[in-house]
Every structure is written in structure tokens, then in C-alpha cells.
Amino acid sequence: MKRRLVAGVMLGAALLLGGCAESPFRKQPDVASRISPQALMALQESAAVAYAQGNAPGAIGLYTQLVQSAPNDVQAWHRLGNLELLNEHYAHALLAYEHVLQLGGGDAGVWHNVAVIRLREAQAALNQVQAQAPSPANAMLRANSARAAQALPQVLALLSPQQAPAPAPPAAAPPDGEQP
Predict the structure, then answer these.
(1) Do the beta carbons of residue 35 and residue 69 sit within 8 Å?
(2) What is the pLDDT of residue 131?
(3) Which residues of 114-128 are buried (b: 16+ CB within 10 A; e: fewer)?
(4) Which pLDDT does position 136 carry in this prediction?
(5) Residue extents of the structural domains in the chain
(6) What is the mean pLDDT of each run of 10 residues along the chain (180 residues)?
(7) What integer pLDDT is reported at residue 159 of this predicted model?
């Protein structure tokens, strides 16, 4: 069991590292030196307009160009992460948010989004247990994983901005000053 876990972790790390080599966020050679300040400002404006208009595909393309041209632009990395998260491109979103954190721009919103991505990844991994552990010897593993996978949507719903609970109405004071 331990060997399988270690092998799985090593495979996952290899896939993750291999995926990083293919990242669309990798800086192209000499891109930053070929773009003028005016072109950079125009790119920033175009990306911001596409972002504000909800044009996710256009904004992703523009912000990808922008982070390649200005790799220290925290806002560009943050917005690119937001767009990738909204489009359920979790690996790309996580890479963008990690750049934000590396650049020192890690506010509560970035950490929140990183948590959401990691919970979604955990949910996908738990769902895979059902397919990967069919033998009767893995019955407890499947059952525990299934319970955890069923609980995660509730946790994710708590993190969703649309699901913010309304504040509770103030409680009536108990008679004679008693504490509830």
C-alpha cells in the first residue's frame, strides 16, 4: 500500500512538472525586450477591457501575452488566474496564482482561490479512487473516499461568493438577563 502511494505521488509530481514545461505562461525569449512601453500599455488596456466585458477567451489570450511581456505585473497574473479559474482551467489558474504569491501580491482572495482549486483537485482525486480501487480489499478505502467526495461540494458551496449566508437576525434577550 505504501509503495503504491509513493509511486502515485511520484507519478503525480512527474506529471505536474511535465505540465509546467508546457505552460502557456512561460516567458518567450526576448519578448519583453521587443515590446515598447506604448505597446505594453495598449496591451494592458485591451486586456482590462476584455476582462471587464466578460470576454474570457479574449482576456485570457491578452493576459497571457501581458504576463509574458511583463512577468512582474501582479494584477495581470491575478486576473489571468481569475479567468482560468472561472473557465475551470485549474492547473493554469494555480500557476497564475502562484506567480502572484511569488511576487508578493497574495491577498486573501488569492489564497481563497488557491484553496478552492486544491479542494476541486482533491474532489477529482477522491472520485478516481472508485475507478482505481475495485477489489474487495479496497472496500473501506472506496467507502471513505466516497464519503469525503460527497462532503466536498458542501465545503466548496461555503466558499462560493454566491452562497454567502445571510447574517442571523439578532436573538431576543432571554428573560431576567439569563445567558442562552
Answers:
(1) yes
(2) 81
(3) bebbeebeebeebee
(4) 80
(5) 29-105, 107-160
(6) 41 39 48 76 94 94 95 95 94 96 91 94 89 82 89 88 45 38
(7) 86
Cell of 89: 482551467
Backbone angles phi, psi at 114, to 5 degrees: -60, -40
Q: What's the DSSP call for residue 135?
A: S
Residue 25: what pLDDT?
Answer: 54
Residue type, 20: C
CA distances from 159 to 38, 120, 123, 163 (A): 40, 12, 15, 7
Match 502515485 to its residue by C-alpha cell.
Answer: 8
Is residue 44 within a helix (H) or strand (E), and if so which, with residue range? helix 37-52
Entry pTM: 0.67
Looking up cell 500557476, which residue turns up? 95
What end-to-end distance do the CA atoms of the chain give, in Å?
50
Give which of 84, 66, 68 is closest to 76, Cα–Cα: 66
The number of beta carbons lying within 10 Å of the beta carbon of residue 129 is 17
Domain 29-105 part of CATH 1.25.40.10: yes
Task: Give the Cα separation of 133 and 129 in Å (integer).
Answer: 6
- The full length of the chain comes to 180
- Which amino acid is located at 3 in the chain? R
Alpha helices in 70-164 (DSSP H): 74-86, 90-102, 108-132, 139-159
Q: Are 43 and 69 in contact (CB under 8 A)?
A: yes
